[in-house]
Design a protein that fits this description.
Blueprint lengths: L33 H17 L2 H15 L4 E7 L5 H12 L3 E8 L2 H10 L5 E4 L12 E7 L7 H14 E10 L3 H12 L6 H13 L3 H8 L4 E9 L3 E8 L1
Length: about 250
């Protein structure tokens, strides 16, 4: 049985408040059934595919490979979900002659089970916490994430980026939602259309926008951690990519 949403959602035509660190249904690892979890992860993969998550990362990974004339990249994906994003990135970069070797981590054992089932392709998956990465310094060319930053409080976000900077050799590249009234309205519209039969995503989708950061907020947090050349890029529609180089 699907759990009751933790809190009512704000009206879509109200002025958006400051960032709200409210709980999502999927935050409770055992709060939903295996089928509900898989369906919700699939919905997130669809959002990344069609609404800029995968594309926004690909743009910057491609640019990094071209500028450094790289034929291979190693990437750590923190909060890997069902693995759809790194699999898609690997396929796209392979067509351009760049081999992407990736490892995906997630705190949830159940999420990783779904990721393993949804293969295909060579991929490493490991249960681990992005706030305390179990890797030596400079273990990967790139540390990336998609739809993970909004799950973190401000202090956690700085810890997360500090750990990412420690483990990355070349770049930290993080893609997430932008908190914006039109983005929230869009999520509510998806809730009564595409997600109408998926009560978890119908609630968690809009809440993800409410929990997200603005461009200025992300930039300010990133400047407090050991990253050089920090930038936050906007990608259509309402997707932010935070980039920086390890110091």
């Amino acid at each position: 049985m699907t759990p009751t949403p933790p809190e009512p959602l704000p009206h879509p035509f109200q002025r958006l408040p400051h960032r709200q660190d409210r709980a999502e249904i999927l935050d409770g690892d055992n709060a939903v059934s295996r089928e509900e979890l898989a369906r919700s992860l699939g919905a997130m993969a669809t959002v990344n595919r069609f609404l800029g998550g995968t594309r926004s990362l690909l743009v910057h990974l491609r640019s990094l490979a071209r500028k450094a004339d790289l034929q291979a990249l190693s990437m750590l994906d923190v909060g890997v979900g069902d693995g759809a994003v790194p699999r898609a990135l690997r396929r796209s970069l392979a067509r351009e002659g760049v081999a992407l070797r990736w490892l995906g981590i997630d705190r949830s054992r159940r999420v990783l089970q779904v990721a393993r089932e949804r293969g295909p392709g060579p991929a490493g998956l490991l249960q681990a916490d992005g706030l305390v990465l179990p890797f030596p310094d400079e273990s990967f060319d790139v540390v990336a994430s998609t739809l993970t930053l909004h799950h973190l409080s401000g202090a956690q976000l700085e810890t997360f980026l500090t750990e990412a900077a420690r483990v990355a050799r070349r770049a930290v590249i993080m893609s997430d939602l932008e908190r914006h009234p039109l983005n929230y309205l869009g999520a509510r519209i998806l809730g009564i259309t595409l997600w109408r039969r998926d009560p978890i995503t119908r609630y968690d989708g809009p809440v993800s926008v409410l929990r997200s950061y603005t461009r200025d907020e992300l930039r300010a947090r990133a400047r407090r951690v050991p990253l050089d050349h920090v930038s936050v890029h906007r990608h259509f529609p309402f997707r932010l990519v935070l980039m920086g180089r390890p110091e």
